[in-house]
Amino acid sequence: MPVNVLMPALSPTMTEGNLAKWLVKEGDEVSSGDVLAEIETDKATMEVEAVDEGRVGKILVPEGSEGVKVNEPIAILLQEGEDESALDQAPTPPAAPSGNGEAKPAEAAPKAEEAKSATPSSATSGSSGAAGTQQMLEKAPPAPPAPKDASGERVFASPLARRMAKQAGLDLTQLKGSGPHGRIVRADVEQAIERGVGAPAPTEAPAAAEGKAPAAAAPAAGPSAKEQAEMFGMPYEEVSLSSMRKTIARRLTESKQTVPHFYLSIEVEMDELMKVRKELNARAEASGDDYKLSVNDFIIRACALALKKVPAANASYNGNTALMYEHADVSVAVAIESGLITPIVKKAETKGLAQISREMKDLAKRARDGKLKPEEYQGGTFSLSNLGMFGISQFEAIINPPQACILAVGKSEQRPVVKDGALSVATMMTASLSVDHRVVDGAIGADFLAAFKKLVEDPLTMLL
Amino acid sequence: MAENSYDIAVVGGGPGGYVAAIRASQLGFKTAVVEREHLGGICLNWGCIPTKALLRVSEVNHILSELDKFGFTAKDVSFDVSKVVKYSRDTAKTLTQGVTHLLKKNKVDVIDGHGKLAGKGKVAVEKDGKKVADVQAKHIILATGARARALPNVEPDGKVIWTYKEAMVPKAMPKKLLVIGSGAIGMEFASFYSDMGVDVTVAEVVDRILPAEDEEISDFAKKSFEKKGMKIHTGAKVTGVKTNKNGATAKIETAKGKTEEIQVDNIVLAVGIVGNVENIGLDSTNIKVEKSHIVVDEWLRTGEPNVYAIGDLVGPPWLAHKASHEGVICVEKIAGLNDVHPLDTSRVPGCTYCRPQVASVGMTEKEAKEKGHKLKVGRFPYRGNGKALALGETEGMVKTIFDEKTGELLGAHMIGAEVTELIQGYAVAQTLETTETDLMHTIFPHPTLSEMMHESVLDAYGRAIHF
């Protein structure tokens, strides 16, 4: 019997994605493990592999389709000896779990995973895979479970608010409650829907957020860009936004509007670091080692070590609590063609410069190819953004929530400095820290920058 | 002449004013209440409480009328009107003394006299036309209440044509009574007199009685009252009233356009209320009055800084518990407390203590439809409930209205024995924003009337067990 190829869930929270590209066409023979298609979520492109042998009988979802629900059949695979006439015998697709907006992302995900694990069995026992999926769908609990926030604490929300949030695809942990003791009530959900906040976090149903995006992007006051352009006859070309662009827009709007930012800047002398870097790279070349350290690799390590010295800066605001992270997971902003992504050097404080350098190269390459896995760019406890290579001397970055700090570093350049009362020339770099004042105060931010400066200016201490 | 300075002065000591004053004092404000007549206001003295005492009496009379049903035989059962009235007045008096005590305990000064605004932060108090005090206050809360509305062609004279006040203290039982207006007050008096054996006619200008209630409840109530002998004219106008030595004649233009003339001993005028906005110093202030009620914002602020108004003096619903709640909101907002929320009028329950009782909270079915909701409506009749049967009270129903999409409890409407005590269950459910699921998961004790509240919810989703 023909087998359905289902839209996979690429992360536990994904409910739908875009079918970017088919790598096979109808009639192609495929064997298990062959890449069939590329799926695009808001941040990454992932491959769909065949779990069965067979021939591509019919492609159900054309490439370029947006908002394809997880578990929706995207193609039908014919088994050996079957021809196109068998196509209509393909198992009736189970109702897509989020098809009517009923299923909560968190619920849909486990189901999707179960469905995925059930699919291989269909290779041997025909329709039992799909039947199994159907059963699992029916077992799905009807009531949305009480959501939990990042720290696993129960989020207090009225049953009505919970249901409305579920129907609107909102993440309750992102909302602030106005009810008794901060309980989230109907009015909060209605307001969130209106303002477009609390939309699913990255990789969660981008389409759910899309409907609300205009509300967030264009506040009630004043004309939208388009209205204004029409009004004044300004010629333009309208380009549709990629999922990534929408995510950037939403997340950063939310950050700048809800996180009270403040900014600290410090000048760091880079001559020593440049010298050590040159020396280490020369040695690597001489000994045939496969690394070449960049200034940024040093800065990543300096950030990680400074965070260990000033752990109060390695934190997240969490409503009534703060989370103090054990490790320095440094998110490094990488500019790519379609926008911006922040792959993470995890536990960077435990990694040497060579390892950081190798990891960063790999992450950056796969970021540009759109091949990062969600867990490689989600999470992180601290962000680093470096525009030095673009000739920028100094800038301030927007915090990447729920992190509390982001360090923006500019170009290392020769500047006049006063040393011992005399004017001289040194290679200087300006580092600016943007800080979430709800959890990190000015003195802590200053301590962090001082520790950072000390490490960068005395780079040998970084090698310890 | 006393001159006193306070943080908060409340003008009017009814359920809005005295509650506001106690809450203010709890929050540490130096507080005074100015009251011209009785602490507790109309509610305690001439409204809610004494009428409940009367309705208890008429309920007893009704039970006596069907003693046979319970296996009793009694002969020559009668009542004495003056004793009935005394029971009602004593009840009110006990409570008024209670309020006096509460204010004293909470260190609220009570100033006896008629208060009116007299410039910024000033209330002048007069007694018998003489000024007795000047009160200075940072914040002034007006809570002067309301009074019965008169009809242009029907002026209450206190003898034959009554307002609620005279209807509460009859010297003798009328044989025939006309009640004009079928809101809560009208229907409570109609029910009281009817159960006391009076031949009662009700005239209502709207096309149904209890016009604030769900239409289905209005219809149910009308049939029920008619069954016990009341005559009800809906869509009817009282075009003329003439008093004579035997009482009065009233011309009623019925819905069909015919005019009937009836002779009655007394008439109760219950066609709504007007706010007491006169002679409280509103002239030359920025306080706006619309249709005899003061205009306030969500925090009960008037157009004049630091002057507030609450209760019947402002917008509907005109209910004692709404006034009290506004008093608390107003004071807590002045104190700058967190977690203060404006009054949500859709969550103010309404109760009418006629027989059968009527209680409701939230939207009627019609309102919910007009607001664009798709509905799930559940109903459960009293005759399907064991406790109701045991009580001998098989007349009534519980109706619930849910939003189909969200499961929000939009409204609940009940008619029957003790529904005024039951409605609070739904009010709590609404405040906590429960959905049908939570109500279904709630265990209701057996055997109780409250089981009908559960069954009605189940019925809305086609799952009623006992009917």
Summarize the entry for a quick read:
The complex is a heterodimer of chains A (464) and B (467). Chain A has 464 residues and is an alpha+beta fold. In chain A, 33% of the residues lie in helices and 22% in strands.
What would your notes on this structure say?
Chain A: Belongs to the 2-oxoacid dehydrogenase family. Chain A: Residues 156-193 form the Peripheral subunit-binding (PSBD) domain. Chain A: InterPro entries: 2-oxoA_DH_lipoyl-BS (IPR003016), 2-oxoacid_DH_actylTfrase (IPR001078), Biotin_lipoyl (IPR000089), CAT-like_dom_sf (IPR023213), E2/Pdx1 (IPR045257), E3-bd_dom_sf (IPR036625), LAT1 (IPR006257), PSBD (IPR004167). The complex is a heterodimer of chains A (464) and B (467). Chain A is an alpha+beta fold and 464 residues long. Chain A has helices spanning 105-118, 122-125, 128-139, 159-168, 186-195, 206-210, 213-217, 225-231, 243-258, 271-287, 295-309, 353-368, 374-377, 442-457; strands at residues 3-6, 16-22, 29-30, 35-40, 45-49, 54-59, 65-69, 73-78, 261-269, 315-318, 321-324, 330-332, 334-336, 339-341, 344-345, 382-386, 405-409, 413-419, 422-436. In chain A, the strands form 5 sheets. In chain A, strands 9, 12, 15, 16, 17, 18 and 19 form a 7-stranded mixed β-sheet that branches. Chain A has a 4-stranded antiparallel β-sheet with strand order 1-8-6-3, with no helix packed on it. In chain A, strands 5-4-2-7 form a 4-stranded antiparallel β-sheet, with no helix packed on it. Chain B has 3 domains: 2-147 and 274-345, FAD/NAD(P)-binding domain; 161-271, FAD/NAD(P)-binding domain (3-Layer(bba) Sandwich), CATH 3.50.50.60; 356-460, Enolase-like, domain 1. Chain B has helices at 17-26, 41-46, 48-65, 67-70, 81-105, 164-167, 184-195, 215-227, 320-334, 365-370, 386-391, 419-431, 436-441, 451-460; strands spanning 2-11, 31-35, 109-112, 114-117, 122-127, 130-142, 146-148, 161-162, 176-180, 199-203, 231-233, 237-244, 247-253, 259-264, 266-269, 273-275, 289-290, 293-294, 307-309, 350-352, 358-362, 375-381, 396-403, 409-416. In chain B, a hairpin with a 5-residue loop joins strand 20 and strand 21. In chain B, helix 3 (48-65) packs antiparallel against helix 5 and helix 3 (48-65) runs parallel beside helix 7 (184-195). Chain B starts with a strand and ends in a 7-residue tail after the last helix. The model of chain B has no long low-confidence stretch (mean pLDDT 95). The interface between A and B is medium-sized, with 14 and 12 residues.
